Amino acid sequence: MSITRMAMCEILRRKTTFFLAALAVAVAVGTILTAQAALRIYGLRSDALLTQKEAELEQRLTVLQDEMRKATLKLSFNLVILPGDQDVRQWHAMDCATTYMPEEYVHRIAESRILSVRHFLPMLAQKVTWPEQKRTMILVGCKGEVANMHKSPRSPLVQPVPDGTLVVGHELHRSLGLTEGQQVELMGRSFVIHKCQEERGTKDDIGVWMPLKDAQELLDKPDQINAILALECLCVGSSALARVRADVAKILPDTKVVEFGTKVLARAEARTRVGEEAVAALERDKAHQQALRAERERLAAMVVPGVIVACGVWIFLTAFGNARGRGAEVAILRAIGYRAGQVLALFLFRSLAGGIVGAAVGCAIGLAIIGRLRGELDVVLVGAAGLVSWHLVIAALVIGSLLGVVAGWIPALLAAQRDPAEILRET
Amino acid sequence: MSMLRLQEVAKTYSVKQREVKAIEGISLTIEAGQAVAVQGPSGCGKSTLLLVCGGLLRPTRGTVSVAGEEPYQMSANERSRFRAQNVGFVFQQFHLVPYLNVRQNILTANVPNRQPNAEERADELVRHFGLEDRRHHVPAELSVGQRQRVALARALFHRPRLVLADEPTGNLDPDNAVVVLDALRQYADAGAAVLMVTHDPQAAQRAHRVLRMEGGRLV
User: Fold this and answer.
1) Pairing, β B209-214 against β B217-218
2) What is the pLDDT along chain A (427 residues), one digit of tens a residue?
3) CB-CB under 8 Å, B118 with A1
4) Which domains does chain B have, with CATH numbers?
5) Strands, E, within A131-206: which ranges?
């Protein structure tokens, strides 16, 4: 016979009180684990939600940027670089420049490391009469984009007109009955209509586009252009134009830069603001989620200790009842020579066993609940940590076992310190 | 050799700020091999005398010596150990441990005072008191006579020099009472000292000496 054996016999004989104490520990341990897991699940769901929102926002911003790019393209050019001696009033009156500059300029600026402009389109435009059709038109020779060598390559903004073909403005092809694929004569040369433009409501409706080389030949301006379109200027803000002008002036001193993009800039700024607002909304969401998380953590920080204390009181009461009901037993054990420490050990072993069994059961139940929650969780868990760490499980086991001992300590101490003579006299 | 010696022992209780003299001026010597019965009316201090003799209740005055040693000069733990080695108790209410079976109850005496061959000693006592067929039964499954025999076996487990019995036959029928009293007498005859407080005339008949107690004094 030993103290441990006696305690085990007592536990087996009085299963109900032992079960109640173990249940209290199980509740406490289960609460610790599930509360932690619930907080983690909430955190994961919040993170997933925010990640999803971020992805959606990014997608939306991409769409906005794309729209911006298209809008820039449709509305007009951001900037146009004209020969230095070009009278801007005349340029406006004639719808195109009347002076010329070398085509080499566009290569010079493209190969410079200018940061503020993304696309360059050289063009040679002149208002002429289409002799075969007897119609006034703006003949535009274009080469498509000359890549800015410093930027990462991108798809060209305007597709070049294929060799031997024309792109015809809406008013011209409508009034002349021209159709795509039709062969036409222009200034004594034969071209195939590559595309008939839709109505734009601008001078473009009387435009005819052809490869730059062809236009230079037809207009007898070899290696000459009269405008470089500088598109998608990257800098935004009140000083944007000044910066681009300064950049261009450094590279092509005998040119002038005219802005086309006030409306575009306003729209771009509006869209930037929309983007900024979306980012700010996301930040607000993040802050809100963090505040909610902190609130839940505060709540858990109150609830979990509360449950532990309640369970401790519960264990104390069952242990106290157990000790009270065993007064005569304690008295006779003391009478036959048991020391107070041995009686204390007899009671504490019971509490410890209740704590260990309860903690193990609580862990098992808690992990089962967590497993179920994990199964229902629509978030992929990364790593082996899962919803709760093994450190927490071990800590919960230790806390549960200690809870049993601590809560049962005072009743055990009271039992061990009772005067056996007093009990024996009373009985 | 005197196994129990009391000199001018007194015990006073404080009850609601009033002092109650339970025993007063008790001097008593019990030699080895003696069984002494103390008789007297209820409330005369018999149980208090027994507890004082057993080292469980410190007297207000006087000295107590058991087997030549004074337990009240010892620390609490030393006194516990001393009781475990030298004193056996038998009570009217048996005070068996309810969740242990017969054999385990007897073996509880081995916990504070480990001795070799404890299992054999327990089995010997089980046989001696005719409890073989009840050895795995818990107290609730035993008759009162069997319970008292288990209590007696536990008291004698470590062969104490002094056995203190408080109304050991108080709850027993005459046949069982005879078994218990005979066992106590035999144990005294074997060289120990037995002090029992009792109302039972049979007990008095089996004692070597009968003392009468009234008003906390031996008369």
Assistant:
1) antiparallel
2) 888 999 999 888 888 888 888 998 899 888 888 888 888 877 777 777 888 888 887 887 777 767 766 665 544 346 788 999 999 888 888 888 999 999 999 888 888 866 566 677 889 999 999 999 999 999 999 887 665 544 444 555 555 788 889 999 999 999 999 999 999 999 999 999 999 999 988 888 999 999 999 999 999 999 999 998 876 555 555 566 677 778 888 888 889 888 765 555 555 566 666 677 777 877 888 888 888 888 888 888 888 889 888 988 988 888 888 888 888 888 899 888 898 889 999 998 988 999 999 999 998 888 888 877 777 666 555 443 467 778 888 888 898 888 888 888 888 888 888 888 888 877 6
3) yes
4) 2-218 (3.40.50.300)
5) 135-142, 146-147, 165-168, 183-186, 189-196
Q: What is the pTM of this model?
A: 0.62
Question: Which of A69, A30, A39 has its CA nearest to residue A289?
Answer: A39
A18 in B contact zone (CB under 8 Å): no
| Residue A345 at interface with chain B, using a CB cutoff of 8 Å | no
Nearest Cα of chain A lies from the Cα of B103 at a distance, in angstroms, of 10
Of all residues in chain B, the one with the smallest CA distance to A325 is B98
Closest CA to B194 of B2, B29, B34: B34
Of B77, B83, B93, Cβ closest to residue A336: B83
Residue A297 carries which side chain, given as an amino acid letter? Answer: E
Give the separation between CA B94 and CA B87, rounded to whole angstroms: 16
Determine contact: A426 vs chain B, CB below 8 A: no
Rounded to 5°, angle at Cα B121 from B117 and B125: 170
Q: How far is A12 from chain B (nearest CA, A)?
A: 8
| B170 at interface of A, judged by CB pairs closer than 8 A | no
Residue B131 and residue B118: Cα distance in Å, rounded? 17
Residues in chain A, how many? 427
A133 close to A191: Cβ distance less than 8 angstroms = no
Under a CB-based contact definition with an 8 Å cutoff, are residues A347 and A416 in contact?
yes
